[in-house]
Amino acid sequence: MIDTLVEMRCLTPEELAKVITNLRELRGWSQEVLAECARLSVRTIQRVEKAEPSELDTRRALAKAFEWEDIDAFNKPLPFPNEEKIMEEERKLNDTTTLVLLENRLSGRKLRGLIEGTHAMQVHEYTELADEPSQIFAQLQDCIRDYMDVCCDLSAVDKIQIDKDFQAAIDNLHQMDITIGIATRRMKLSNENGEDKTPIIFSIAYLVAGNSKVFPPSIRVPKQTQIGF
Question: Angle at which helices 156-175 and 131-150 pack, to 10 degrees?
Fold first, then answer.
């Protein structure tokens, strides 16, 4: 996939003009100074910076002037983003997925409230977790699934203890620089095998764990999910 989004090509005259101008200005050089360093005429430098076509030897002389080891750096094909392919992939991504915002300022009580009433849960590790946080995150998942199965039968006192258990897991993970985030979403569940094709509305929770320094504000999930029953 990455290969299709990148094309190998040489710099266009317009791109070369920008590169040469930026390199020259970063060094505080005038066109006259660059011309002297490259042993080219000032007129040649002006033509290059006006995006006019240039000769191979001219581009080599410019690379030498900037003390580049590869004097053919301005003549070789370089990797560039394939804008058309990127736009096509973005359209496909937007057609098949949607962004859901993650709530990551969680307390045990808030986490319990968000998953209460949901029918299913998907789990993601945004960054790979080490053994200890992975174990704690797995235990938290088990606790959440157990709670989803019996939440309607628990008393208010029982739920206070659930809040404490969730909070302990969140706190332990935070001490390891791991953030927990959750998003909930209402979806339609299709019965493809039955006579009644009326979709059933259900809620799904997305539980995400990852390094706090790079934790995302949102994740992409499929727009539609079909489950036969």
Answer: 160
DSSP letter, residue 225: -
Q: Does domain 3-81 have CATH number 3.30.1660.10?
A: no
- The Cα–Cα gap between 46 and 91 comes to 41
Domain map of the chain by residue range? 3-81, 93-222
- pLDDT tens for 10-57 read 999 999 999 999 999 999 999 999 999 999 999 999 999 999 999 999
Q: Are the CB atoms for 48 and 116 separated by under 8 Å?
A: no
User: Quick one: CA torsion of 103, 108, 111, 116, rounded to 10 degrees?
Assistant: -170
Spatial CA neighbour of 36 closest among 64, 57, 14, 68:
64
Tokens representing 194 are: 């039955």
DSSP structural state of residue 53: -
pLDDT in tens, 93-115: 888 888 899 999 999 999 999 99
pLDDT at 6 over 60: yes
Residue 5 is classified by DSSP as: G
Confidence class of residue 203 from pLDDT cuts 50, 70 and 90?
Answer: confident
How does strand 78-81 pair with strand 200-211?
unpaired
DSSP H or E run through 203: strand 200-211
Residue 197 has what pLDDT?
Answer: 63
